[in-house]
Amino acid sequence: MPLVSIKEVHKSFGKLEVLRGVSLDVKKGEVVCIIGPSGSGKSTLIRCINGLNDIQKGSITVEGQEVNDPKLDKLALRKKVGIVFQQYNLFPHKTALENVMMAPVKVLKEPKREVEERARALIAKVRLSGKEDVYPGHLSGGQQQRVAIARSLAMRPDVMLFDEVTAALDPETVKEVLLTIKELAAEGMTCILVTHEMGFAREVADHVYFTDRGVIVEHGPPEELFTQAKDERTQRFLSQIF
Amino acid sequence: MRALAKPFRIDVEAVSSFLPSRALRGWHGILLLALFLASLAIATAHAQSGAAAGPPSPLATLVEWIPFILRGFLLNLGMSFLAMAIATVLGIGLGLLQLSRSRFLSLPAWLVTHLFRNSPWLVILFVVMLLVPFELQLPGGGTFIMSDWLKATFAFSLPVMANVSEIVRGAIVSIPKGQWESAESLAFTHGQTLRWIILPQCVKRAIPPWMNWYALLTMATPMASILGVREAVGNGQAAMEAAGARPELLVPFYLFLLLLFFAYIYPISIWTRMIERKYAVDS
Amino acid sequence: MFDLIAPIFQRLNVETGWNFIIFYDRYEYDRFLTGISISLQLILWSILLSLVIGVLGAWVQTARSRLLRGVVDGYIQLFRNTPPLIQLLFFYFGLGAFTPQVDMGGYYEPLISSFTWAILALGIFGGAFNVEIFRSGIEAVPKATAEAAESLCFSSWQTYAYVTLPLAFRISLPALTNNLVSLAKTTSLAYVISVPEMTYTLNQVWSDNINVPEMMIVLFLFYVVVVSLIAAGLHVLEKRLALPGYGR
Which residues of chain C have pLDDT under 50? Predict the structure, then answer.
């Protein structure tokens, strides 16, 4: 059974239809990249998986739990699904370590000492040892983004969503963030990424989806999609990038 | 980084006491009017449940005295105009002095500005009322009679002067250095640069806070009644006294006074807000 | 303290005529201390009341009910656009006339003293400004930051308590400082309803002793010191709470 299953999802903001029948499955341990021109609904799609946006029609299940259910226990869902945003959105009044510790301590009510140990390990894992007590305002964009990844991982999610996490970064700091994600993927974390980094998508993804105007135009393993795209829209998009 | 840093700032001036509220709506005036009429009705009913052939109802008493109170209100307006004119002239001068390159000028100007900004209006009013002589000897030999309302007007102009001084200083400082440099390179003198380049750019920025200080000034003028000036509140109190000092008069009379000021100040607030928005869009 | 300064001011009076009677006459000295105490209490309580009103009002303005929001908006406009002096008179004389009197054994005293009325009126007046200040602060917290908390399983209440409110408070502080300082100055208006605070007390002293200029200096100094202390205290708080890396 797929870990995340999306079936015929429709979503509109007012009159604007952003998703028009999107379906995709993600198996456990799989890394899936969603690419496509801006405004094609990629970000909206992964925000729906976390319940940040609701959908009008269709179904999204995470480990068999239906997201499109008014009685959904959002807390339980979000424990399984971590998300990292383009703008990192760290809490500016808390240090890096506090940012990572906050949710497990305040929400899950886990013992502080245990969480701190785990948080320090996570910060080391994203290569930020020594920055534990630094505030977000004093970290570079790439460093902030890695703290944000550690913050999500502290909740021990089953699947991680990455929403254009390198789009707001300076080119020099993009690499370190991508490296962190690559390591995560290698460890077997299920990842869904919305990204513009085609080289990266080709390298880490097990499966790539190309979306345009709210539908999935074409999908397949990266080698196949990047070299022998069948649809004319995919070809045009890829030729503009490379 | 840049995109994130910005939201954590707030425009202090936009929410501080010297700019009008963000949510201005016309119906608030109607709300006050309704409140006023409702309480009048209650007060009237309250009074009439007593004696049948007693004194006239509070409403009738109020109506009878309204012209008298309005005459007092004209003095409030007169004081506010005159005080604002004095405050503007003195305040601009003081603001320019604060920016003077000579410390002998800038330090005293700074001191005066901050003394009057940080003192309560009432204290300043007492100082002027009690310490300024009744007659001023003019240098030409004549005497100038400082009547109470004139003294109060002068007193009210002082805190506003200090705040205008700060507005002027802030506005000038906010003009980019490049303006000074480019004017200098065109052979403008310091004074010419100020007069023709800098001040015209300051006016737009300074108008909304200036108008708001006018509103605050007008709302301070009733304090003059404490020292016996017969403006609206003083006349209102005198009228209640004359009508027999009945306790049931208190609510309608004071409500009427609130309404009177609200009717004058509220449109100014809306207008100020409109101008502020317009300039915010322009720049 | 009194014994220490009394001789100095006594000599000052004899030698120069400067009559700071409150520093060498026991009776006036006590009166002066009472005035300070009442003024400070008045400032403290009206600031606290205005803060409570500000937080509650800002919270109500995030409510769904249009009626509730409208009532708070109306309250803000009424109190911002009318003279605080008349508000005070209206509360004390207008509403005070309807409050019950308590039998104090022979004579009657109003249930709500003029001191309490002053706190109520000034707190409600200052609160009208605080509501807007806090609301602007809440609005200035980026939606995305609250969203991040939500995605980390925070409930909406937890998001409000741990993220939105702490940030909004920091953002509001500079404007809040302005308003609280201005409210502290406005407390001198309690003079008109005979609350024996500093302005009222010194007024009586100079009426009794004909030493207007000397008492004026004391009065000015009192407010300059109090206002500076409040402002300094809030600036320290502002510095300590400043978001590192996000200069103003």
Answer: 248
Q: Is A67 on the interface with C (CB under 8 A)?
A: no
> What does the CA dihedral A38, A40, A44, A48 come to, rounded to 10 degrees?
-150
User: What gap in Å lies between CA A154 and CA A31, rounded to an integer?
Assistant: 20
The domain limits of chain A are 4-39+56-202+213-241
Contact present, B154 and B132 (Cβ < 8 Å): yes
Residue boundaries of the structural domains of chain C:
2-241
Average pLDDT over residues B203-222: 91
Q: Which CATH architecture has domain C2-241?
A: Orthogonal Bundle (1.10)
Structure tokens at B280: 């915010």
Closest CA relative to residue A216, chosen from A227, A225, A203, A224: A225
Taking 90 as the threshold, does the pLDDT of residue B87 lie above it? yes
The string of DSSP letters for A113-150 reads HHHHHHHHHHHHHTT-TT-TT--GGGS-HHHHHHHHHH
Q: Which of C46, C76, C82 to mutate to test the interface with B (most CBs of B within 10 A)?
A: C82
At residue C25's C-alpha, the angle toward residues C22 and C26, to 5°, is 105
Among B59, B27, B28, residue whose Cα is nearest residue B255: B59
CB atoms within 10 A of CB A154: 25
**How does residue B49 score in pLDDT terms, banded at 50, 70 and 90?**
low
* C162–chain A Cβ distance below 8 A for any pair: yes
Tokens 């709500």: give the residue. C112
Residue A119: CB partners within 8 Å, gap ≥ 6?
A97, A100, A101, A104, A150, A154
DSSP reduced 3-state for A106: helix
Q: Which residue, among C75, C79, C85, would best test binding to B if mutated, counting the most B CBs under 10 Å from its CB?
A: C85
CA–CA min distance A93, chain B (Å) = 11
Domain covering A4-39+56-202+213-241, topology: Rossmann fold (3.40.50)
Inter-chain touch B7–C141, beta carbons under 8 Å: yes
Work out the burial of residue B143: count CB atoms within 10 Å of its CB; fewer than 13 is exposed, 13-18 middle, 19 or more buried.
exposed
User: CA A94, CA A103: separation in Å to the nearest integer?
Assistant: 12
Which residues 158-177 of A have a C-beta within 8 angstroms of B? 168
Distance CA C14, CA B212 (A): 48
**Residue C227 near residue C184 (C-beta atoms within 8 A):** yes
Q: Is C241 on the interface with B (CB under 8 A)?
A: no
ipTM, interface predicted TM-score of the complex = 0.88
C243: left (phi over 0), alpha (psi -120 to 50) or beta: beta
Domains of chain B (ranges plus CATH)? 71-233 (1.10.3720.10)
Q: How many CB pairs under 8 A join A and C?
A: 73
Residue C158 touches partner A, C-beta closer than 8 Å: yes
Give tens-digit pLDDT for C9-36. 888 888 888 888 888 888 989 999 999 9
Kindly report whether the global pTM for this prediction surpasses the value 0.90: no
* Chain A residues touching C163 at Cβ < 8 A: 91
Under an 8 A CB cutoff, do C151 and A83 touch?
A: yes
Contact A93, C165 (CB under 8 A): no
- Chain B contact for C169 (CB, 8 A cutoff): no
B131 and C84 within 8 Å at the Cβ level: the answer is no
